[in-house]
Design a protein that fits this description.
By secondary structure, this protein is mostly helical. It has 5 helices and no strands.
Length: 143
């Protein structure tokens, strides 16, 4: 049972970080504030590190990370729709804050439902949630 719970937490961490990387990639062409672009680029690089760590944990369990083309397309479409009429820095920053909050909620939920997961998965999830909380605080200055 512990392996299954470890895998659940690792999958959510990988999905969370992967989604963040893809979202930032989709947003970067719409960001014209240099300081904000630098912040998002820094966040993207760190999310990519989390994604790689979670993938490595999944590989240790003999699993390949899942990458859904449908999920990627839905994310891209949602970002395009949400920025169609407003690409202001405060609007995009608010979108990023909401995405970080949603990521934290997803990780909290999966950790709550998988209490017996291993220390690597729990530590990775905790570190990712802390990072997302820090992102929210840094992004507030762009509102």
């Amino acid at each position: 049972m512990r392996n299954h719970e470890e895998i659940n937490v690792l999958r959510e961490a990988q999905r969370n970080a992967s989604r963040a990387v893809k979202a930032i990639d989709a947003l970067m062409g719409k960001v014209y504030n240099e300081e904000f672009a630098y912040e998002l680029t820094s966040e993207r690089n760190r999310f990519q590190d989390f994604e790689r760590k979670a993938e490595a944990g999944l590989w240790e369990h003999g699993l390949m990370p899942k990458d859904s083309s449908l999920e990627r397309a839905k994310l891209w479409g949602a970002i395009q729709a949400n920025t169609m009429l407003n690409i202001s820095t405060p609007h995009v920053a608010n979108m990023a804050i909401q995405a970080n909050s949603k990521g934290i909620a997803g990780l909290l939920k999966v950790r709550h439902n998988n209490k017996s997961s291993g220390s690597f998965a729990n530590e990775l999830a905790e570190e990712l949630m802390d990072f997302e909380e820090e992102n929210i605080e840094r992004l507030k200055k762009f509102l």
